[in-house]
Amino acid sequence: MAEPGDRARDEFLSEAQEIVETFSRNLLSLDASVREGAADPALVNESFRAVHTLKGLAGLFGAQRLATVSHRLEDLLDDLRLGRAPLGLETLDVLFSAIDAYGRLLAAEREGKDDPIPAVDDLLSRLDRLGGQVAPKATPVSDYELDPGLLGVLTEYEEHRLRTNLELKLRLYRLRVQFDLSTIDKALEDMKSRAKKHGEIITYLPTGEASSPDTIELDLLMASRDDLATLIGSLGAENIVIEEIPRRRTTGIPSVAAPRTPLRPPGTDRPSDSVPPPRAIEPTGDGPSLRSLTQTVRVDIRKLDYLMNVVGELAIVKSALGRLTERLRAEGQRQLVAELQRSHRSFDRRLAELQAGILEVRMVPLGQVFERLARVVRQISREMRKEIRLVITGAETEIDKLIVEELSDPLMHMIRNAIDHGIETAHRRAEVGKPAAGTIALNAYQKGNHVMIEVEDDGRGIDEQAVLQKAIAMGRVPKDGAHELSREELLGLIFLPGVSTRDQADDVSGRGVGMDIVKTNIGRLGGIIDVQSETGIGTKVTITLPITLAIVSALMVRVAGNVFAIPLASVSEALWLDEAGTERLDSREVITLRGATLPICRLERLLELERAPSDPGPRRPYVVVVALGNRRLGLVVDHLFGQQDIVIKPLGRALASVRGFAGATELGDQRVGLVLDASAIVDEVLEGSEAVRGIRRMAIG
Amino acid sequence: MAELVRAPAGRLARRGGRGPVREFLTFLLGDDVFGVDLARIKEILSLPPITLVPRAAQFIVGICSVRGLLVSVMDLRLRLGLEARPRTRRARILLVTTDPGEVVGLLVDEVRHVVRLSEDELELSPALGGDVSEHVLGVGRPRGEFIVLLDLAAVVEG
Fold it and tell me: Which CATH class name applies to A4-131?
């Protein structure tokens, strides 16, 4: 087991990861707000806070480089939030590159490596260059003759915000609010978010008075462009008193401290030489809050796998109990049997609930990976000078954590392809009457036991003739057979190794990643990938994924005494095999199914299974039709014996090179059955240019 | 189904030499005595039902489940290039942990006991002929016996 030190370190790394993700989310929102013309100061401040916390953590764990990078970033963000440096798209570029640098730093930290990381050096030198832009420090806020009691407790950032708001000629309000001590964290967050549409809460202080021991009274200092009536209408409640703070006539500078209602707590009569009073809660202050606002725990997914295994074992215990009950029944113990059966049923139900509960914990929203993609889109579009509008729907769709982890690379490649090869240059778009900004839509939704993810662009579409030429040049398609291929079949060619979607003539980036790799990765997750494209209108790539890898419904089959599971996700139907109806076409056996030709594959032969001498083989075998995208193959098996929900476990390293199996599963009687990898078998049987001809035949139906 | 690896004290071979002591679990393949580092042995199993894996290497017996854990089982004879022999009642599976934290089963003819060997009873990396040598750590020579000590890492991960 891990040493306590290792565990603390793991905790540190995953917490750091989360902070970087938050930072990244803030940057994306910030990017949007900058593009709309006004950077949201709260987001800049939150980014500062994130990096500040990261610096502290890194220092604590002796992660020197992480600390250095965070320190430098913190300086920049501090300048930005205090208005000492301008925040533009170039600065954002640097900040976004920090996310990438952090990713590499954390990976290096995790592996205990300290090789030089170019991305980090690059970031540091870009930060150096930015340093030159820092504006001179602004005049201190004391020029404004603000109440010294308030000044004593304002942080530099709050001063800056106050000054900025006053320069914008906003009004100042004092909100005196009674909070319930037990719910203050949440109530205050609510208050802040509701106030946001009217202006900004600059600071808050406890008044030191309270109507009961369970409540606390805070004065919130708020700047807003709205008038008092609007604020009362929007924020007013029983526990809130809102007053406008009048301006001082002579200087036009507001007196924050209204008579008889000092903002500073009582007992600090001489604030200038006293320490600033402690505050009840301090989410915008400079020290990390000790109390967490959320009620979540981080769990290593391996622990969930372990729990899932325990559930599997309980299921085995359950069937053993069932067998015992049957024996009791045979012995005539009616009363006992009835009671046992009741307990058995209830155990069964609870077990199913437990299993569902664990599965639910494994589920995470796809938004996690979409956020990373949004960053990629921004980066690539800046690199390629193509303006891209990313539209995301269904980010809340949930899927197994393990799948999400594996999805980000394939999706990133698809998006890169879409921007690189799909979206035209602004000039070209103008010529064909499309809006200057290209749109990439990332849609996710649940469909039965599957999650669908679509990556759609409004670019030029795939040039299927270019794809075909490439495929012919690669020897993937026979030259004379090419004219027979339909458009769908031609599009399917992009998934063959070495064939690219890029148009050779104007390929400048050369960064497109083969769709065959994307397809392999998706296939490994039990998913299917399909492409649709219209010339001049756009391309849509659809991925169909199982919701979880932990449990799949499978069709259980027997071949020559061996039990195999075929995931139902890839099964389209099963039928009797009519031996008289089989024909040979080229080197392959085929049958005709509803007028279409279907290649079939005898698993017994493919897997070279040995039939026991006593086993004459089935009188009438079955054909299980597996469909993957537009490719279909019939697998010939001896018997079908029903559908079962199975937990797929990976085969060990000793078996890693064995093709055709996705893993193994327990069958409940201490035995293990292999799970067929339908996609690998289809690939193997219908390989290469053969595959193309296979597609063509099937497409006739 | 599982037996703990704990030989009775009397069956532990007596210390004959000097220096630090290492413990090895000994077992038979045919008439020869082999030994592996005891610390790497997780458990010893009687044969559970084993599922054949088509297309796997010849020395892979198949896979089995040990209380929910999926284990690949290797026939140690075939792995070492020795001749195949029919399994007997005494055949056992040694569960060993490999470096990436995986558990692999090794099918052996018969498990004997744990021996403690001092340094002067150990002869590391001797020259042995045949296919076995690449999997051998050395030989142990406690009192008139000859034990081939296997390099588990090479056997399991090689």
Answer: mainly alpha
